[in-house]
Structure formats: structure tokens, C-alpha cells
Design brief:
Layout lengths: L1 H9 L11 E2 L13 E2 L2 H58 L3 H9 L7 H16 L5 H21 L4 H40 L4 H15 L3 H10 L8 H14 L5 H13 L3 H12 L6 H20 L1
Helix pairs in contact: 2-3, 2-4, 3-4, 4-5, 4-6, 5-6, 6-7, 7-9, 9-10, 10-11, 10-12, 11-12
Keywords: Cytoplasm, Cytoskeleton, Microtubule, Repeat, TPR repeat
GO molecular function: microtubule binding
Subcellular location: Cytoplasm, Cytoskeleton, Spindle pole
């Protein structure tokens, strides 16, 4: 209405320079003469009213467009603020993760557990799993956290199937859940786990962790105990299988992508060479694992295991 009023003032009628109520109109008389007549006030006002209504109606689309622009700009501002907010949370989360602040990271991310953002959700899956792995976590709480992590990872994958990290953490969490669901479920899940690790590598060939995890998958099935192999053959026509050579290939590939990125990759290189009876290369990689700077509880455990394996070499020699 305000816009219509402004437009009205700019028109001749709005400035009161419109002609008087004398309008020429030809009227056919018996003699064919033309004459003029004075229009009644109601006719004049009726015409002006019709014009006003016409003007208002023509202004409505413009008003609607103005409103659309206002709402669109507001929506864009809100969306931009939301993106910046998510980015800020992710930066905080990554800082806490790199700093080893597992509990603080979990507390931060659980505030946003209803989020629809895949990047937030897979980080929450990782944080839940990390809390579950802490030595102070009870077995009952650990189980709850493992299943919670799987749910977050699943949601992350649903939100963004192109996220390599979502595929990676979904596979990790399925593997963890298998520990609570028996050998049959664990073997059945192995196919799903492999599929998602392979997809993660396809989406990001430079992610050393995904490659390392694919190596663990191969190593696990290469050293599967005979009784589990028998169960697998009974349950599945073609049970999952692999070799130490295949596992070794993935561990080396991970190391090429990101040298010394993970103490466990160094340890598993040493252990795989032991399985292949190459003690010289086994000792080389185990020494690297033992000397790896310990930043986490897991690093310390790996140092201890590597040292024990190296001591075993000395005793046998």
C-alpha cells in the first residue's frame, strides 16, 4: 500500500493537475451534431476509483517481488550463518581431536547430535567410539557407545553418500558391533565392511587410514583360525578370504600415501613380515613402531607390543 501511495503521487492525478470534470464525448444527435456534457461526480470518482484499484493490482506483483527479495535475503543470511556455525564447530572438533581431548570432543559434538550435517555426524561417530575405547569406560557403557556410534555413522552416510569419511566410519562401527553379535553376524558383515572401505578409498585415494583399514581387513581374514573358517564355509558358499601378501600391499600403500602417519600401521607391517617369515624387514618395521612418539594410549600399547616382539627375536637368535 505504501508503494501504491508513492506511485499515486507521481501520477498527474496525484499532483492535482488533472482536468476538471468536463470531458468531451461525441453524442450523435438527430442532426449529426456533436456536443459536450458535464459528467456527474459519481462517474468521475468511479473512474478514479477503478484506476486506483487497477494501479494497486498492478503494483501487487512488484510488492510480492520485493517481499520475496527480503525473505530470500533473510534466508540466505540465515543459511550462511548456519554454514559458518557448522564450520566453526568442525574446526573446534578437529582441534580437540588433534589435541587428544577425547572427552571434551565428545561433549562438544553431542550438543549437535540431531544435526543433519554429515561432517558433524561422522565426527560424532568417531568421538563416541573413542570414548568407548577409553580404559575407564565400563563394558556396559562401551556397548551403548558402540551402537550409538554406528547410528551416527549410518546417519552421516544417509546424508552424504559421497563422503569418504562417512563410508570409513560406517565400516569401522559395523565391525565394532560385530563383537557383540556373534561370529555369524561378524562374518556376514565382513562383506559390507570391505565394500565401504573400498568405497572410501575410491572417493579419497589419499586417505592413508582407509587404506590401512583395508589392510587390517585382509590381515584379519588371512589369519582367521581354522574353526572360524569352518563355520564360514558352513554358513556361506564363498566366505570372505584374503592373504598376508594382500594385507602387506595395503599397509605399504598407506605408508607411501602418508609416511609414519600411524604407529599401528608400522606395527602391522612388522607383524605381516613375520607371518611371511621375513625377519629382517619385520625387525625394521617393528623398530620404527617401538620408536614412534607416543601421543595416545594406543601408541603406548603399540610400543610395548613392538618391544616384546623384538625381544622375541633376540631370544630366538
Amino acid at each position: 500500500m505504501a508503494l501504491a501511495a508513492r506511485l499515486w503521487r507521481f501520477l498527474p492525478w496525484g499532483r492535482r493537475v488533472f482536468p476538471g470534470p468536463w470531458l468531451s464525448r461525441g453524442v450523435a444527435g438527430s442532426r449529426g451534431l456533436c456536443c459536450t456534457r458535464r459528467l456527474r461526480g459519481s462517474e468521475v470518482m468511479g473512474n478514479l476509483g477503478a484506476f486506483k484499484r487497477s494501479l494497486l493490482l498492478s503494483a501487487l506483483p512488484y510488492l510480492g517481488f520485493e517481499a520475496y527479495q527480503v525473505f530470500s535475503q533473510a534466508a540466505m543470511v540465515h543459511a550462511t550463518a548456519k554454514v559458518f556455525r557448522v564450520e566453526e564447530i568442525l574446526e573446534q572438533a578437529d582441534y580437540l581431536y588433534e589435541s587428544g581431548e577425547t572427552e571434551k570432543l565428545y561433549q562438544l559434538l553431542t550438543q549437535y547430535k540431531e544435526s543433519e550435517d554429515a561432517e558433524l555426524l561422522w565426527r560424532l561417530a568417531r568421538a563416541s567410539r573413542d570414548i568407548a575405547q577409553l580404559s575407564g569406560t565400563s563394558e556396559e557403557e562401551k556397548k551403548l557407545l558402540i551402537y550409538e556410534a554406528l547410528e551416527y555413522a549410518k546417519r552421516a552416510l544417509e546424508k552424504n553418500e559421497s563422503s569418504f569419511a562417512a563410508h570409513k566410519w560406517y565400516a569401522i562401527c559395523i565391525s565394532d558391533v560385530g563383537d557383540y553379535e556373534g561370529i555369524k553376524a561378524k562374518i556376514a558383515n565382513a562383506y559390507i565392511i570391505k565394500e565401504h572401505f573400498e568405497k572410501a578409498i575410491e572417493l579419497n585415494p589419499k586417505d592413508a587410514t582407509s587404506i590401512h583399514l583395508m589392510g587390517i581387513w585382509c590381515y584379519t581374514f588371512a589369519e582367521m583360525p581354522w574353526y572360524q573358517r569352518r563355520i564360514a564355509k558352513v554358513l556361506f558358499a564363498t566366505p570372505p578370504s584374503s592373504t598376508y601378501e594382500e594385507a602387506l600391499g595395503y599397509f605399504h600403500r598407506a605408508e607411501q600415501v602418508d609416511p609414519n602417519f600411524y604407529s599401528k600401521n608400522l606395527l602391522l607391517l612388522g607383524k605381516t613380515y613375520l607371518k611371511l617369515h621375513n625377519k629382517k624387514l619385520a625387525a625394521f618395521w617393528l623398530m620404527k613402531a617401538k620408536d614412534y612418539p607416543a601421543h595416545t594410549e594406543e601408541d603406548k600399547q603399540i610400543q610395548t607390543e613392538a618391544a616384546q616382539l623384538l625381544t622375541g627375536f633376540s631370544d630366538k637368535n
